[in-house]
Specification:
Number of strands: 0
Number of helices: 5
Strand content: under 5%
Radius of gyration: 12 Å
Low-confidence stretches: none
Shape: globular
Helix content: 55-70%
Number of domains: 1
Length: 90
């Protein structure tokens, strides 16, 4: 099943997911449902092509010397959510 979500739509949905569930550190998601940036993107994307495109777009909006997981773990939820929204065009 193809959802045809744009990378921007995926990032905005990921921001909403993280805001609702909370932010995980060190895992894509944890037993309580919290998720890191990549975990939220993977849940929101529901297909690999959308996941990869959203990941690339987010990486352009963060410190490019860091991987997304390292950056996500190093920042608080508000910072990560704001970056997801900014990269998503909100």
């Amino acid at each position: 099943m193809t959802t045809n979500l744009t990378p921007q739509q995926v990032l905005l949905a990921a921001a909403d997911l993280m805001e609702k569930r909370g932010k995980a550190i060190g895992h894509y998601w944890d037993a309580t449902g919290r998720c890191c940036a990549l975990g939220a993107i993977s849940i929101a994307a529901s297909e690999w092509q959308a996941y990869d495109a959203a990941k690339e777009l987010l990486h352009k909006h963060i410190d490019e010397d860091l991987s997304i997981p390292t950056w996500s773990d190093a920042n608080d939820a508000a910072t990560v959510i704001a970056a997801l929204r900014r990269a998503g065009g909100a």
